[in-house]
Amino acid sequence: YGGGMGMIMQANPIYECYNSLLENDEHIHLIYMSPKGKTLTQKRAEELSKLDRFVILCGHYEGVDQRVIDEIVDEQISIGDYVLTGGELPALVLADTVSRMVKGVLPEDICFEEESHFSGLLEHPQYTKPYEWHGKTVPEVLMSGHHKNISEWKRIQSLIVFQIFQIYLIFPLTYKQLILQDQSTLILLSF
After folding, report:
1. Which stretches does DSSP call E strand in the chain?
2. Is residue 45 left, alpha or beta, with left meaning phi > 0 and alpha meaning psi from -120 to 50?
3. pTM for the whole thing?
4. Which of 20, 54, 73, 144 is the most exposed place for a label (fewest CB within 10 A)?
């Protein structure tokens, strides 16, 4: 009702589908992927990974009937300030972000604990072979085999990347101009 260009998914099929998942009047946490929701964060993904299970509802085109959202949806999550034709891709983003923190999905917890955003920082730069590529070499500390120095370098680089990212968010035009003029100076000042 109310006109508009896109189709809206009806309440009853969604409601019946959700109810078919319930056993013994249990409750399953239901997340609706929506640009109206809170933006997905690593912290929220970690919290969701501790749930026994949850259901993701994906709208398409104009979304779903508001009455079913009011009736069964526990929270709405967005993956950013833009609109897609449907909630399927955001649901995949949520599923991937959460599932990688579930025990047994990755070989060890360290596989996700040292990633960007998990600790509140962004990840350090990473390198692979060859040692030199287009005149740029792998930092010597990474070639040293000295684990303590490598760990310290990674931490410092994460802090630098984080600080640069914060500058970019707060002063995007200034940052772009500075980075083009003198990236090395900006990195040195980041200490």
Report:
1. 29-39, 54-58, 75-78, 132-133, 136-137
2. alpha
3. 0.74
4. 20
